[in-house]
Amino acid sequence: MGLIYDEIARLQELLNVKENFMSSSLAKLKALTNRLEEHAYHSETPHSSDLKPKIETTIQMPSPVKLKKVPTYNEVRKANSIRVKVLYEKLRIFEKSPNFDEIFIYKAMNLSGIGLKEEDFGEVREGKYIQIIAITYEPDKQGKKKAKNVSLGYFGKAETLERRLKNEIIEFVLRWRYEKAFQNVEHYKDLIARVETY
Questions:
Q1: 3-class SS at 124?
Q2: pLDDT of 54-105, one tens digit each?
Q3: Which long-range contacts (CB under 8 A, 24 or more apart) does 106-111 make?
Q4: How far is CA 184 from CA 22, 125, 144, 177, 190, in A?
Q5: Rounded distance, CA 180 to CA 110, Å?
Q6: d(CA 85, CA 11)
Q7: Which of 149, 152, 158, 155 is nearest to 128 (CA)?
Q8: How far apart are CA 122 and CA 124, in angstroms?
């Protein structure tokens, strides 16, 4: 029996050692956890010695760009047509061509006495007379089409022409050409539609 008591005592001693070891390990683990938590806390909150003046940088975002509504084909054409009519009346084109819509039956329109080419755009030609010239094609005696110039407006000598009037004359011719371009687009749209259904 003494042997059994000795064995129990030895086991009791081992259990005590194990308990001490376990509680010691547990205490060490708790201490380590506390140190880690404290370190994490101090890392998140700066110490007064760690405080440095912060330089604030603000990035200014550009203000949003307001996109203009792009006018439609029909809106551009309508605005151009209105302006052509205003100039038609202002320049008194109606005296030579009383029906506004009929000015578009002409094949072309030019200016005499004012340059419209890139290299001389808007320049008046000294000694020349300013006229808006419409071009039409009419059959001659043999039935061949022949170009015919029709004066739609006479504005006197180039040297005496006021700048505002000169600009309105140029604008009228350019806007007339613009409307003719719209009419050509419509003509070709119609032709293409006919081909597609043919």
A1: strand
A2: 566 667 767 777 777 888 888 999 999 999 999 999 999 999 999 999 999 9
A3: 106/134, 106/135, 106/136, 106/150, 107/135, 107/136, 107/137, 108/134, 108/135, 109/133, 109/134, 109/135, 109/152, 109/173, 109/176, 109/177, 109/180, 110/135, 110/173, 111/169, 111/170, 111/173
A4: 99, 31, 24, 10, 10
A5: 13
A6: 118
A7: 158
A8: 6
Collapsed DSSP state (helix, strand, coil) of residue 46: coil
According to DSSP, the residues that pair with 147 across neighbouring strands are 137
DSSP-based three-state secondary structure for 110: strand
Provide φ and ψ at 36, rounded to 5°.
Answer: -65, -45
DSSP code of 115?
Answer: -
Percent of the chain with pLDDT over 70: 70
